[in-house]
Amino acid sequence: MRLPLFISRRYFFSKKKKNFINIIAIISMLVVAIGTAALIIVLSVFNGMEDLLRSIYGQFDTAVQVMPAQGKSFQYTDDLKFKINSIDGVMGITEVIEDNALLKYNNSEMVVKIKGLSEDFIEQGRMKNAIKHGEFALQDGKRPLAIVGRGIQFNLGISLRNEFTFMEFYYPKNVKPGSLNPSKYYSHAIISPGGVFALEQHYDDNYVFVPITFAEKFLDYQGKRTALEISIDSPESTARIQEALQASLGSDYIVRNADQQHEDLYKILKIEKLFVFIVFSLIVAIASINIFFSLSMLVTEKKADISLLFAMGATRSMIRKIFLTEGAIIAFIGSGCGLILGFSIAWLQESFGIISMGVESAVMQAYPIKIIASDFVYTSISIILITFLAGVQPSLRAASQSQFLRIK
């Protein structure tokens, strides 16, 4: 293998003046480098976006969530509470009642998601950093308070300073036929806004947090809950606690971790990342046509050298290895430079946030990016495979014509 490598290196790093074939080889190397760097950067951006979403949803969602397998609510009993608390690693239970309701403020109204939460939610402090105005509290003494999304505040013009105007909620009741009293068609309740949060547009535009007692009475969920949010001692024990809870509670409940609470979104991100990987690999494959042409022309130019090597006893296998090695040199230099360039750009962005997202109210100012070693491994394998295939046909042609050549 040393002789084919030596000859290939001589062909590529020849000190003679560069001809057209050398120029095409250099262009091929540059294109492979640029394609590799672009692929690394784009994959790192997808990793960053996934991490950003996890950090955003981590403030809203809990590590483990218990949901009913059928229907939208279940009876929250002491036995159920005991089963959950008996699992090693469970630190607390936040009771949740979530449903849609009509919210009216002054002369404006909109449909929102009202989410009733027990005091454990405040004690955990998951969304404390998301509060932009007011207090992170659901009670002021005995007076219930609501924490409103910033989008809802803007749409309805809610003011925390106006103590004389309340948020009014309306919720339809299950009315029996024959009832003529309109007030029996819906539940009505008022509450004061105590704080405004800004987390993510979907949450900001839809959610209002209220005390669990307020939601239970207003929505008529007597003793029922729509979900239980479980806080745990450490993220490393999530899988074990999830499995233990599912085994203890049985098939009547669904136990989900943080990723499974947004399973569809993360699947879409992974599919998009896969398609981006395929598209950029195809771009590199198209660029590798230059490698094919440069090797094909090199085979034509080196007919005399091939003939001489064959006369000196070189085998077809050695001739193939010479030109395959020539293609490998282009591939390794191109992909190596591309990996270094892609890593450098991604590292600079991750460390210093050079490129801004251009949105002042964004959760983070710099464009999110994260470097993962597996991206480099898969990219390297893909580039090497593509460039190897590009050099197979010219090397086979060189080996097959060697027996018909004569030294001039």
From TrEMBL:
<comment type="similarity">
    <text>Belongs to the ABC-4 integral membrane protein family. LolC/E subfamily.</text>
</comment>
<feature type="transmembrane region" description="Helical">
    <location>
        <begin position="321"/>
        <end position="347"/>
    </location>
</feature>
<dbReference type="Pfam" id="PF02687">
    <property type="entry name" value="FtsX"/>
</dbReference>
<feature type="transmembrane region" description="Helical">
    <location>
        <begin position="20"/>
        <end position="46"/>
    </location>
</feature>
<keyword id="KW-0449">Lipoprotein</keyword>
<keyword id="KW-1133">Transmembrane helix</keyword>
<dbReference type="GO" id="GO:0098797">
    <property type="term" value="C:plasma membrane protein complex"/>
</dbReference>
<dbReference type="GO" id="GO:0044874">
    <property type="term" value="P:lipoprotein localization to outer membrane"/>
</dbReference>
<feature type="domain" description="ABC3 transporter permease C-terminal">
    <location>
        <begin position="278"/>
        <end position="401"/>
    </location>
</feature>
<feature type="transmembrane region" description="Helical">
    <location>
        <begin position="274"/>
        <end position="300"/>
    </location>
</feature>
<dbReference type="InterPro" id="IPR003838">
    <property type="entry name" value="ABC3_permease_C"/>
</dbReference>
<dbReference type="InterPro" id="IPR025857">
    <property type="entry name" value="MacB_PCD"/>
</dbReference>
<feature type="domain" description="MacB-like periplasmic core">
    <location>
        <begin position="26"/>
        <end position="152"/>
    </location>
</feature>
<feature type="transmembrane region" description="Helical">
    <location>
        <begin position="367"/>
        <end position="392"/>
    </location>
</feature>
<protein>
    <submittedName>
        <fullName>Lipoprotein-releasing system permease protein</fullName>
    </submittedName>
</protein>
<keyword id="KW-0812">Transmembrane</keyword>
<dbReference type="InterPro" id="IPR051447">
    <property type="entry name" value="Lipoprotein-release_system"/>
</dbReference>
<keyword id="KW-1003">Cell membrane</keyword>
<keyword id="KW-0472">Membrane</keyword>
<dbReference type="Pfam" id="PF12704">
    <property type="entry name" value="MacB_PCD"/>
</dbReference>
